[in-house]
């Protein structure tokens, strides 16, 4: 059985705190990865419950990672867009242009928490956008879309290691295609809003990108790239990402809903997306 390293990250920690963590984790040595991240070598997984409680109290992220597992091991990163790669839920911001943000955001929240059927809730929300000028989407993209902390760093690290990047979203191609071009991503998959005479019809064209579609696309791209299951990692925050995270070698919940944090392989709740780099640091 290969040894495990414990990665703890998210905020500066005092030396005495780090020393206590090392003792309780059974780790003989600590490697600093940054000012807010450390690798505890050869940690004992039997200490997981104690580490989990301690990190919850410290408000830090933790993960046990096989020793020697680095970013170079992977060939594909699949990531959700809304509230994962970017800070907003695009559909909520679009609805805000019609004065419907609160109404749509409430549906989005329940959908991401797994309380509503995603496809049905998406059609319900998109229907409320009927009549909106397509040019409004440009305003949302330019004024509202901002990357989450650490996104640029993780993208750059993946590109430097030759890891392909797939952006997949239950949101809309208007946004994924622009992010793909702007950030130099390899793939972009999302739903297409129907537009007639320059206005949204309130309909989505084609099949909905739901939880199963996300997992299917991960498997499809993995196969096309000739990768093993363990050579793919994925990031997401909502119930619509669960099947994709489960299909990945490492599924990472990023500032996610409780249902996702509890089922993912790893949860990052305090770190930025660059926390992934620390998980798989050389």
From TrEMBL:
GO biological process, one term: L-serine biosynthetic process
InterPro entries recorded: HAD-like_SerB (IPR050582), HAD-like_sf (IPR036412), HAD_sf (IPR023214), PSP (IPR004469)
Enzyme class: hydrolase
UniProt-recorded name of the protein: Phosphoserine phosphatase
Chemical reaction(s) catalysed: O-phospho-D-serine + H2O = D-serine + phosphate; O-phospho-L-serine + H2O = L-serine + phosphate
Cofactor: Mg(2+)
Biological or metabolic pathway of the protein: Amino-acid biosynthesis; L-serine biosynthesis; L-serine from 3-phospho-D-glycerate: step 3/3
Catalytic residues, chain numbering: 80 (nucleophile), 82 (proton donor)
A molecular function GO annotation: L-phosphoserine phosphatase activity
NCBIfam families tied to this protein: HAD-SF-IB, serB
Enzyme Commission number(s): 3.1.3.3
Record's keyword terms, sorted: Amino-acid biosynthesis, Hydrolase, Magnesium, Metal-binding, Serine biosynthesis
Pfam family, one: HAD
Gene3D superfamilies: HAD superfamily/HAD-like (3.40.50.1000)
């Amino acid at each position: 059985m290969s040894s495990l390293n414990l990665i703890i990250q998210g905020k500066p920690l005092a030396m005495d705190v780090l020393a206590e963590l090392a003792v309780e984790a059974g780790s003989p040595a600590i490697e600093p990865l940054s000012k807010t991240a450390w690798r505890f070598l050869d940690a004992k997984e039997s200490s997981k419950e104690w580490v989990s409680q301690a990190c919850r109290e410290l408000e830090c992220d933790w993960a046990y990672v096989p020793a020697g597992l680095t970013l170079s091991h992977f060939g594909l990163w699949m990531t959700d867009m809304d509230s994962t790669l970017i800070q907003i839920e695009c559909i909520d911001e679009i609805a805000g242009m019609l004065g419907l943000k609160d109404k749509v955001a409430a549906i989005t929240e329940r959908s991401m928490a797994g309380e509503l059927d995603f496809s049905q809730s998406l059609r319900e929300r998109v229907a409320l956008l009927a009549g909106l000028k397509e040019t409004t989407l440009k305003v949302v993209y330019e004024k509202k879309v901002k990357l989450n902390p650490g996104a640029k760093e993780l993208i750059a690290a993946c590109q430097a290691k030759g890891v392909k990047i797939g952006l997949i979203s239950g949101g809309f191609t208007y946004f994924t295609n622009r992010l793909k071009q702007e950030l130099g991503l390899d793939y972009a998959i999302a739903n297409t809003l129907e537009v007639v005479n320059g206005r949204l019809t309130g309909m989505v064209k084609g099949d909905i990108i739901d939880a199963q579609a996300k997992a299917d696309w991960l498997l499809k791209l993995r196969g096309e790239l000739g990768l093993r299951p363990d050579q793919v990692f994925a990031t997401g925050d909502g119930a619509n990402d669960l099947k994709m995270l489960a299909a990945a070698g490492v599924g990472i919940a990023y500032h996610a809903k409780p249902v996702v944090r509890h089922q993912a392989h790893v949860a990052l709740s305090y770190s930025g997306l660059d926390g992934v780099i620390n998980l798989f640091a050389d």
